[in-house]
Amino acid sequence: MIERELLRMNAVPVYQNKMFGSAEAARSCPSGDLVLTQNEQSGLVHNAAFNPALIQYDSSYQNEQVHSSAFRAHIDQVIELVGRHFEAMSILEIGCGKGAFLNLLLAAGHEARGIDPAYEGDSPHIVPRAFEPGLGIRANAIIMRHVLEHIPSPVEFLQQVRTANGGVGRIYIEVPCLDWIMQQRAWFDIFYEHVNYFRIDDFARIFGNVIEAGHLFGGQYLYAVAELESLRDPAIVNGISNPVTLPIDFFARLDRCAAAVRSSTACAIWGAAAKGVMFSHHLQLRGVMPSIAIDINPAKQGCFLAGTGLPVLPPSEAIARLGATPDIFVMNSNYLSEIRALGGAGPNYIAVDHT
To answer: Which class in CATH covers the domain with range 1-249?
Structure first.
């Protein structure tokens, strides 16, 4: 197996969406190394240093984004897309989390079930365990939203899904887009929880029959709808025609943000999720740190960010604490309009992915 190293980061927090009850516990979050490599036989990009034993998903894992109107608009687009391709089909959502998207599928009239090992609840539509071929759960269509990037050996996992589903069925896959990460110099979107980093061309090699593929959420995500029976080995015969390259100025925006924090009298980050965890981690390595993190998700408020231990506050409390004209680093510009509406006219809003 020939692997070409793209990027190396040592001792990064292994959790990006797990919330902690105290700053001390958050700062004691396990760390792991990240060695981003491209396999020259398959063309797939992954963290060659990933250790699955370091990560345990449980009820403290909070990645639901339905509190945001901007994200709900994205979800509505996905529901419409799924409806076009999966009409009158039974659906199984693998990695359904707390069931937010599954509930929307049910509300839209789909026959749907979900499975997730971290689920805690009593929904008759969700199986609270990890997916494996021997469960005997089948459906006409499979949904995997923001799951495949977390799974070591993703093609082997898809093979297991195909086998468990009798070798047939349709699948919808949605993952972050590596091309967007590279083009936007989004260094904060490379983190430990994500083992794999996909480009849209990858799915044309993984599946022989891709019905539809494209980009969502301002290009940050990509999706593919494919026939499971067309799953194949993504081996490249004549070498990679478009190898992944790390831009020379990939971390330039980080240096500008660190300088802005250093000169600020009061600053915070808005977005207590993966981007916020990695943003604060990299700033800490440069000797600077915002004072707080802000998030509209009630399940995150009062908790602390992995690695740095930054406290997470609701918008109203955070703005009151920061004063009249703080600098607020917005982790995702897709949310900038609603953040301005919540935060008011006083703060200086800095979109990290456009700084």
So the answer is: alpha beta
